[in-house]
Design brief:
Strand content: 15-25%
Number of strands: 18
Radius of gyration: 22 Å
Mean pLDDT: 83
Distance between the termini: 18 Å
Number of helices: 13
Helix content: 25-40%
Structural class: alpha/beta
Low-confidence stretches: 1-68, 434-445
Largest sheet: 6 strands, mixed
C-alpha cells in the first residue's frame, strides 16, 4: 500500500514530534489520503523493506562489516567553475570589456547550481548538442562513451537584441539582476529556443498554468546561448540561510568527517511531518541491520524557485532546525543543507535530476515518495503525472544505475500503539489516514 496526499491551502496546526514529551507545533496544510500500491525497485529495497537477509559477499560472510565509500560523482570529478580568489580581479576586468547578458533571478539560481558541481559533468549552460541529448534522451554521452543522467535542460535564454549585441563575440559577461558582474561564459554557441518543444518534452503537456513555464519560459527570449562558465565569486543570497547552502564538495567533506559509510538523501519542499521522520529513522535502522556502521541522512530541502503555495524556504529551514533541536532526527547522524536548484514540477523527468544531483553530493541511497516532483494538473482536477511513475522511472533511468532508490513506506496513525507507524494491511481498521495532529506521510515531492 502507498499513500496519496492531496494538499489544500487550509491552514491548521499539526503536532510535529513523535515523542509525547515534545509539543512543537507548526503551520501545515490540510491533507486527505487514500491507499495505493507501492513499487519496489530492486533487490536491495526488498531486503530493506521486507526484513529479508541480504545476500552475503565472501567478506561479509566471514564477519566483515559491509562498507560503502562515497559514491563517485558523474564524470569522476565534482565540477567547480568558481574563479580562484587570486584571479578574480583580472577576470572581472575582462568581464567588464565583454558584451553583456543580463540574467533573470532563475538564471542566477542555475549559475549557482552549475558553479558548485550539482550538474557535473556539465561545466556551463548547455550548447545545442547537450541540450538535444538532455531533451530527447534525459542523459549525456561522455567522450569515453559512458552515459550520465541529465534529464532537465539547463539553458540560458536571450532575446533578439542581446543576440545582436553579442554579434560574433565568443565570450560574454553575465550580469545579475542588480547589475553586478557574476560570470564569464566562454566559447559560446547561440541556437534557436523552440519553447513548445522544450515544454512538451519536459512536462509532457503544453497545458496553460505550469508555474515554471509561465514565469520563466513563456516570457524568455527566442534564443539559447551555451558555453563554459567561469563564475567570479561564490553565489550568495544574504538571506540568513547561506550557511545551509553547502556545495557537493563541502557535503562530501562533512560526510567524510562523520565517517559515513552510507549516505541516504531525502528531499522536501514542505515541512517535515511525523511520517517523514518515521521513514527516515526507520531507513537508518534498516541500513544498520544490513551491516553499515554509520549511515548518515542528508535532509536536503529544495531552495530554488518554488510555486506560490509551497511553504517558504525560511519557514521550512526554521522547522527543520527545530526537528533536530527536539531530537526528532538525531543531529549526530543528520546533515541539513539547502539544495539550490529551482523546481520545475516536471514529475518523472525532474525526479531524475533530483536524484542525479545527490549522487554528485555523495549520496548512494535516495528516498523517493509518491508523485515526486509532481503537482496537480493545471486545468483539470487530477494529478498531472501517475503517482507511481516517478519511482519506477528512477529504477530504470540511464545513468542512475549506481544509485539505490528507496520508495516510501506508508505511515499512518496507529490507534492501538497511539503513535505513527507503518501501515499494516492485516489490521487496516487500526490505522487513521487523516489530516490534523495524527498526520500520515506526505510525498517528498
Amino acid at each position: 500500500m502507498s499513500l496519496t496526499i492531496k494538499l489544500t491551502t487550509t491552514p491548521h496546526i499539526i503536532n510535529l514530534n513523535l515523542h509525547p514529551k515534545h509539543r512543537t507545533k507548526i503551520p501545515a496544510y490540510s491533507l486527505g489520503v487514500r491507499p495505493k500500491p507501492i513499487y519496489h525497485s530492486n533487490a536491495l529495497i526488498s531486503i530493506l523493506y521486507n526484513n529479508k537477509q541480504p545476500r552475503m559477499s565472501q567478506a561479509s560472510a566471514s564477519g566483515s562489516v559491509i562498507k560503502s565509500s562515497l559514491i563517485e560523482p558523474d564524470g569522476g570529478v565534482v565540477v567547480d567553475v568558481i574563479v580562484p580568489e587570486c584571479e578574480r580581479g583580472s577576470k572581472t576586468l575582462e568581464a567588464e570589456s565583454l558584451p553583456k547578458v543580463r540574467l533573470a533571478r532563475i538564471d542566477v539560481e542555475w549559475v549557482h547550481v552549475i558553479s558548485e558541481g550539482w550538474a557535473s559533468p556539465l561545466k556551463g549552460f548547455m550548447r545545442e548538442n547537450e541540450y538535444l541529448q538532455s531533451l530527447h534522451f534525459n542523459s549525456l554521452r561522455m567522450e569515453n562513451g559512458t552515459v550520465v543522467n541529465m534529464s532537465l535542460p539547463i539553458v540560458l535564454a536571450i532575446d533578439d537584441e542581446t543576440k545582436e549585441n553579442i554579434g560574433s563575440a565568443k565570450d560574454v559577461g553575465l550580469v545579475g539582476p542588480d547589475g553586478d558582474l557574476l560570470a564569464i561564459l566562454r566559447s559560446t554557441e547561440i541556437y534557436k529556443h523552440n519553447k513548445e518543444e522544450r515544454i512538451a518534452r519536459t512536462w509532457g503537456t503544453t497545458a496553460p498554468g505550469l508555474p515554471y513555464v509561465e514565469e520563466f519560459i513563456t516570457p524568455a527570449g527566442n534564443w539559447l546561448i551555451g558555453g563554459d562558465l567561469e563564475v567570479l565569486k561564490p553565489i550568495k543570497y544574504n538571506d540568513g540561510l547561506d550557511h545551509f547552502r553547502l556545495s557537493p564538495q563541502q557535503l562530501r567533506k562533512e560526510f567524510d568527517r562523520r565517517q559515513a559509510d552510507a549516505v541516504f538523501a531525502f528531499q522536501l519542499r514542505n515541512p517535515v511531518h511525523n511520517g517523514h521522520a518515521l521513514l527516515m529513522n526507520d531507513t537508518r535502522r534498516r541500513l544498520l541491520e544490513l551491516g553499515y556502521k554509520n549511515p548518515i541522512l542528508l535532509l536536503h530541502p529544495l531552495g530554488g524557485f518554488t510555486k506560490a503555495d509551497d511553504v517558504p524556504l525560511a519557514v521550512r529551514m526554521e522547522q527543520h532546525s527545530k526537528v533536530l533541536e527536539d531530537g526528532v532526527l538525531d543531529p549526530e547522524t543528520t546533515v541539513v543543507a539547502i539544495f539550490p536548484s529551482p523546481m520545475h514540477y516536471a514529475g518523472p523527468t525532474e525526479v531524475q535530476w533530483h536524484a542525479k544531483a545527490r549522487i554528485n553530493a555523495g549520496a548512494n541511497f535516495y528516498i523517493v515518495g509518491r508523485d515526486p516532483a509532481g503537482m496537480g494538473h493545471p486545468t483539470e482536477k487530477r494529478d498531472l503525472y501517475d503517482p507511481d511513475h516517478g519511482k519506477k522511472v528512477l529504477s530504470m533511468a540511464p545513468g542512475l544505475e549506481k544509485l539505490n532508490v528507496l520508495p516510501f513506506r506508508v505511515a499512518a496513525y496507529d490507534t492501538v500503539a497511539k503513535k505513527m507507524a507503518f501501515f499494516d494491511p492485516s489490521r487496516s481498521k487500526d490505522f487513521l489516514f487523516i489530516s490534523g495532529t495524527k498526520v500520515g506521510t506526505i510525498s517528498g515531492r
